């Protein structure tokens, strides 16, 4: 995966004309792309030409000073907010308006974990986690309860279905919000991107680590399942080939879930080669100010400043770059291009 480690390079990679050849092999892995996105609230410009790509398999952190448009970026990427101008490409096709308008919504779903967990206080944990399924599926209640229990067990919270949010600690609320974002109908084989807005804000260091590791494991479990699915598909292909050699009328189903994955330096799965799309959580984006979250749950950083991407790179690049905006931010210095009034 090419890492961009300077302001200049960050701009170049956003421009397809400047994409280097080694990069183009990965262009089919782009799930979400912002091209020169602008967004204002009233007469206040927030995003001012933001361009970046999110690829299959990535764990991306969006960081930058307060008020620079990080949450706005997430909400636009999630299709909850429309840009004023510029393009948002989903699986390579421009999204016309909000996510619900997109013909690709059925192929790429976005789960959002909002700041402060955003649970409904008057609903139980189980009703919160199963909310979308209760509202938007025809599944029987008993099946939704099974899916909810499964989602809660993934975040280590089995058995809390009947509690109310007020009875949970801050860390537990965030984990319930994670369960709500990952719970889905078993028959839903959509590819998904999870968006986390400040998932560890306000948590003690240990509770933060629990949430960060969950973000990682929910993602890598999905990638591992996709990898196994790919192997099964290959076995199916082999059976189909054998069947056709023997003249039988076999037609193995190949859902196109072919994805080879390998472990990155920090244990994250990185796509290596793929055909078609996968199901489950392909990638996640996290907006955070927490250094622990950046280091534990992120592989690549997109740095926003004044509504633009001014730097992209790996965690290692983040520590060594001489880009003044990034250095000032990383060191928490009062001196530099970032100014507060
Ligand atoms: N719906 C809205 N209406 C009006 N102004 C808004 C709206 N949403 C965001 N803003 C403003 O846009 C600016 C950017 O907000 P945003 O939440 O995207 O920043 P951020 O980089 O995530 O900040 P922080 O790190 O402080 O959370 C802020 O000044 C905010 O008040």
TrEMBL record:
SUPFAM superfamilies: P-loop containing nucleoside triphosphate hydrolases. PROSITE patterns: ABC_TRANSPORTER_1 (PS00211), ABC_TRANSPORTER_2 (PS50893). One of its GO terms (molecular function) is ATP binding. Residues 32-331 form the ABC transporter domain. Keywords: ATP-binding, Nucleotide-binding, Transport. SMART domains: AAA. Pfam families: ABC_tran. It comes from the Eukaryota. InterPro entries: AAA+_ATPase (IPR003593), ABC_transporter-like_ATP-bd (IPR003439), ABC_transporter-like_CS (IPR017871), P-loop_NTPase (IPR027417). PANTHER family: PROTEIN TRIGALACTOSYLDIACYLGLYCEROL 3, CHLOROPLASTIC. This is ABC transporter domain-containing protein. It comes from Chlamydomonas eustigma.
């Amino acid at each position: 995966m090419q890492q961009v480690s300077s302001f200049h390079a960050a701009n170049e990679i956003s421009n397809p004309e400047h994409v280097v050849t080694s990069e183009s092999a990965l262009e089919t892995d782009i799930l979400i792309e912002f091209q020169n996105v602008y967004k204002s609230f009233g007469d206040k410009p927030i995003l001012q030409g933001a361009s970046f790509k999110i690829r299959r398999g990535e764990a991306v952190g969006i960081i930058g000073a307060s008020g620079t448009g990080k949450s706005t970026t997430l909400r636009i990427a999630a299709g909850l907010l429309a840009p004023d101008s510029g393009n948002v490409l989903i699986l390579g096709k421009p999204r016309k308006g909000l996510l619900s308008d997109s013909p690709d919504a059925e192929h790429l779903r976005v789960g959002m974990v909002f700041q402060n967990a955003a649970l409904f206080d008057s609903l139980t944990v189980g009703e919160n986690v199963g909310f979308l399924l209760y509202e938007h599926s025809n599944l029987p209640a008993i099946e939704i309860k099974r899916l909810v229990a499964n989602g809660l067990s993934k975040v280590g919270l089995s058995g809390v279905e009947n509690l109310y949010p007020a009875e949970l600690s801050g860390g537990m609320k965030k984990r319930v919000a994670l369960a709500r974002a990952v719970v889905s109908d078993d028959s839903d084989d959509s590819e998904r991107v999870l968006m986390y807005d400040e998932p560890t804000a306000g948590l003690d260091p240990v509770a933060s680590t629990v949430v960060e590791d969950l973000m990682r494991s929910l993602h890598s479990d999905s990638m591992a399942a996709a990898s196994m699915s790919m192997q099964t598909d290959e076995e199916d292909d082999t059976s189909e080939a054998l069947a056709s050699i023997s003249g039988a009328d076999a037609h193995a189903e190949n859902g196109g879930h072919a994805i080879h994955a390998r472990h990155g330096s920090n244990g994250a799965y990185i796509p290596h080669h793929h055909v078609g799309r996968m199901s489950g959580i392909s990638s996640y984006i996290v907006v955070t100010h927490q250094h622990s979250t950046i280091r534990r749950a992120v592989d690549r950083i997109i740095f926003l400043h004044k509504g633009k991407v001014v730097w992209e790179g790996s965690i290692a690049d983040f520590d060594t770059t001489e880009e003044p905006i990034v250095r000032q931010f990383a060191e928490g210095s009062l001196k530099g291009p970032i100014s507060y009034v």
